[in-house]
Write a structure and sequence with these properties.
The chain is of the alpha+beta class and 185 residues long. Helix content is 42%, strand content 11%. Helix 1 packs across helix 2 and helix 4 crosses helix 5.
Length: 185
């Protein structure tokens, strides 16, 4: 999202710079005798505050979404969402992330994803596999409710098998209770 805002800002700078009146020198006049020379002051309009260097930099930075590899865009969009202990309902802090993922998938109909459900180490292996599955399906259901085709989303559960953090404390367990989104190749 930050990248899009930067791109838009840079494009606006280029457009304003391109549209601003440029001072052009008048054609050189024939030599006038020295006593008749009148000094001319060049006053630049205030709207031309954008320096040529900034315009050149902005032109270098002009990048359209088509020029950015989809994998790079996906890294910014496909962020993990987290769950409360022993729960699989979507938390309020996860909804904006899922909304952004849904928008991304709707804009790119050729992209499919895998949602990986993960749990912390507490509980039996079987219980955590089932909980990870419910977490992945909850995220899928949310995305489908936003208009994404269910055929574009696969779910898989890893339970407690692939932790991000290996310490045994609440902060670490919270990191492990997640859904992870991956582009499908």
């Amino acid at each position: 999202m930050k990248r899009y805002a930067l791109i838009i800002a840079l494009l606006l700078v280029v457009i304003v710079g391109a549209c601003a009146k440029r001072y052009t020198r008048p054609p050189e006049k024939a030599e006038v005798p020295k006593e008749e020379v009148i000094k001319e002051e060049v006053i630049k309009p205030e709207t031309e505050e954008v320096k040529e260097e900034e315009i050149a930099y902005a032109r270098e930075e002009e990048v359209t979404e088509k020029e950015i590899p989809i994998e790079e865009i996906a890294k910014d969009v496909l962020r993990d969402i987290h769950f409360d202990f022993d729960k699989y309902n979507i938390r309020p802090d996860a909804r904006p992330i899922l909304d952004e993922i849904a928008d991304f998938l709707i804009k790119h109909p050729d992209i499919n994803i895998v949602i990986e459900g993960h749990c912390d180490e507490r509980g039996t292996n079987e219980y955590n596999l089932a909980l990870g599955d419910r977490r992945a399906k909850a995220a899928k259901d949310y995305l489908v409710s936003k208009g994404v085709s269910p055929s574009r989303i696969l779910t898989i559960t890893y339970g407690e098998e692939r932790p991000l953090c290996r310490e045994s404390n609440e902060e670490c367990w919270q990191k492990n209770r997640r859904d992870h989104f991956v582009l499908m190749k």
